[in-house]
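In response to reviewer comment 3 from the previous cycle, which asked for concrete evidence that the modeling workflow produces usable outputs, we include below a single protein chain processed end to end. The sequence was submitted unchanged, and the resulting C-alpha cells are shown without manual editing.
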Amino acid sequence: MNRSLRRLRSALLAVLFTAIGTHAFAQNSLTITDGQSAGLASETLSVLMDADAPVEGFVLAITFDNGLLSVSDIVAGSATLAASAELIVPETLSGGFTLGVVVDASAPFDGQEIPAGTGHQLAAFTLTPQTIVTTDTQSAVEFSDGVLNNPPLSNLLVQNGQSVGAANGLGLNNATMTLLPPPPDSMRLESIEFDSDSSGSARVLLSNSSGAVQGFVLAVAHDPALVTLQGIILGAETLAAGAELVVPELHSNGGTLGVVLDFESPFEGQSIATGDDNHIASYTYSSNQVIENPNPPITTAIELVNSQLGSPALDNVIVVAGLSISPALEDGTLTLLDITIPVNDTAFYIGQRDFPETGTNGGLGFPGQEIEFCFFYSDPNDNIQGIQMAVCYDDLLLIDGTFTIEGSIADELGAEFVNYQIDNDDNDGDGRELVAGILMDALPPFENQQLPSTIEPLMIACVQAEVDSGAACGDSFSIDFCDGINGNGMVPINNLVVIEYQSVQSFERFGATYEIIPVPAFQRGDCNTDTKVDLADAATVIASQFQGYEVGCLDACDANDDSVINLADSVYLLNFLFKFGPSTPAPGPYTPGADPTEDDLDCALPASCN
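The workflow returned the following C-alpha cells.
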C-alpha cells in the first residue's frame, strides 16, 4: 500500500472512530454520468451524490474496459472543492481507478463537510477511447466494490462518522460510455492552373476527425508527358506541428511523402489536431510544353493513388493513436493555360541560388552580413550566343570583387570569354555598378557553343557581397539592371543577349530587393538575459545544466566561448567576477553584439538594430 493510501485509511478511520451518535441510512446514492465520444475524442464524466446527511469523506472505486478506454485527469468535483477537502488521493489502476477523499483531515480540524443534498459533484474524470470503432459501441463504467487496490477498496460515504456502503443502502448507479465511429477522414488535392511556361503548386488538404494525426504518407501521380514534379514541401499545419522525419521521393510519374511528426527525443507528442482542410503538403509542378495562344488550355489529372508509387509501393494513410487509417481520397486537376509568346521573350533575373525553385528575387540581410546573389536568364524559344549585363546597386551593398560563372550553365557549356568590372566608388558621379560580358564561342575551333533555350531560369553567374555595417534596420537596398552604365570605364553598357548574331535589348528584367534586419546580438556571460553579467548568471548556468531550467540564449551562457554549455562556464564567470580572471570573450560582457564564433548554439533574444 503506498503512502497516500495509508494516509487516506488513517484519516478515514479517525473520522469513523471520533463520530458521535447514530444514523439511519437512506436516500444516499452515487451516480456516474453517461458519456459518448466520436473517434478518439476524450469525454469527461462526473460522479454525482445524493445524500440525506452531510458527508465527511468518501471512497470511489470505478472500473471500465481498458481494452476500449483509458482514464486521466481524476479530479475533485465542485462540491468537494467547495468543502475545501484536505486529503484527495486518486489512484489510476489497470481497468479502473480509485479516489479517496477526507474533507477534514488536517489540524485544526474545523469540521468542514460536504452538505446534504442532491446532485452534488464529488469528482470528475476523463475517458479516452483506445480504438476506433466502426459501429456504435457501448462500454460499461461501473462502481466495483472489493476489486481495485490492495487491499481492495469499496465505494462508500462517511456520514456522522459511519461508513455507508452498498450493504447499508448506498445506491450505486453505473454509466455507459458510448463509442461512436468518427466521421470519415479524407485527403483531397486542390485543383490548380498556371501558365504553361511557368509552374504551380497543388495543396494536399486533410480533414481528420478520427483524432490527432501523428504521421502520414502521400502518393500522388501525374502525367509525365505534360508536367514534371519539381518538389514536395510541407504544408502549413505540418510545419506548425514541427515534423521531425520527412522523406520525399520524386518519380517521373509522381511523388511520395512520408512524415513522422514526433520522431526524435524528447518525444513531446507533436501531432496535427483534428480539423477540416488541414494543409499538410504541396506538390510543385512545371509544364513540359508551352501552349501558345490561340491553342486551348490543357487539363490533366493529379491523383492520390495507392500501391502504384515507391518501392515497396505506398498507400495514402494517416496515423492516429498508433493506428494506420486509410482516408477517403479526392483527386484534383492541373490546367496548363495558353500564353501569348512575345517576339523577344528573353528575361533576366537577380536572386539567390534557389531562385528557380522559390521564385524569390530578394531576401533579408543584416548589417555586416556576407551575402551572395546570382544572375539568371530564361528564353523558351532561342539559343543565346552571348550575354551582356549592366547592373547598379545601392551604397548599402559592397561587392567584394568576386564575379564567377562557376557552377552555372555558362560554366558547364564552356563559355570562352568572361569579363567584368565592379565599381564600388560612390564618388565617381555614377554610383555603384557592375558590368559583365559572356561570349560562349570566342576561341578556336569555333564550334558555336550557345546557351540553350529554357523556360526555367538558368544561372549564369554569381557575386559575393557584404551588407554595409552601418545599415539601419528596416531599410532596404536594391540590385537592378540599368542600361547605359560604364563601370570603371567610359563605354556605356546596356543589357542585351546575342541571338543569331543580333543584339536583342527589348526584354523583361527583374531585379532584387533586400530588407535590412537586426543583427543577432547578446552579451556573453549574461545567461539570465537581464542585460547584466553578475553572480545570478553563474547560478543560471548551473540551473540550466542540473535543474532543467530553460534559458533564452545559449550563446550568452557559453561564457568561455568553447561552443559547449557546462559547469566550466559557471566557473569562468565566478573567476571573472571575483578572482580577477579574464573577461568573457566577445561580445560582452558589457556591450551586446553578434557572435564571432561559428557554433551550433543559438540565441532567441530580440536582436540589436541600428
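Residues 3-18 form the longest helix (16 residues). We consider this sufficient to address the reviewer's concern, and the full set will be provided in the supplementary archive.
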